[in-house]
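Budget justification note: compute hours in this period were largely spent on complex prediction jobs such as the one shown. Inputs:
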Amino acid sequence: GAVVSQHPSRVICKSGTSVKIECRSLDFQATTMFWYRQFPKQSLMLMATSNEGSKATYEQGVEKDKFLINHASLTLSTLTVTSAHPEDSSFYICSAPEYSSGNTIYFGEGSWLTVV
Amino acid sequence: GNSVTQMEGPVTLSEEAFLTINCTYTATGYPSLFWYVQYPGEGLQLLLKATKADDKGSNKGFEATYRKETTSFHLEKGSVQVSDSAVYFCALSEENQGGKLIFGQGTELSVKP
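Corresponding output:
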């Protein structure tokens, strides 16, 4: 079946550096992907909608210059956390709907980011 | 705006007990409704879904019925197992939103042997 894969699953970076997280649809084309953030023991909050070939749409309160999203192909979206700070430490997870299968929404495995 | 409200956890049950996790929603249109499960340290897995009123989603012994009149989608299981211990998220997706999900706050379930 369709799979969405995220990489890396865990990453530790130093404050001030940037880190990139990839989200790939492995056997279907995803013109749209979604990025969510989850703080410990909390729910998932939508950060942005990633659109292939165009700019991402960010939710209110999400800094687009800090969380750069690029959706350069039909199977890949990337989230780059720029100038990371400890408060950016979180669980980031992407999803992609597959419209040909009745709009089934597939999630990646998630990426744990720790900024030290 | 659209929202999802779940009962607060944690919920602690003994093995073979009956489970209900309440979920209600607010939506302007006709959303699809979902239950996702998150095991410790892992991502989200779709547990079940329902796309229209009176639909019943079911999987692995879990069931939920889309009740438009009460705007609810309560999750039930007749006999829980220790392996069901996880966090359960209720979510909705509005039609024409392209797969964007709005999640409830999650309910942690702990099943004791």
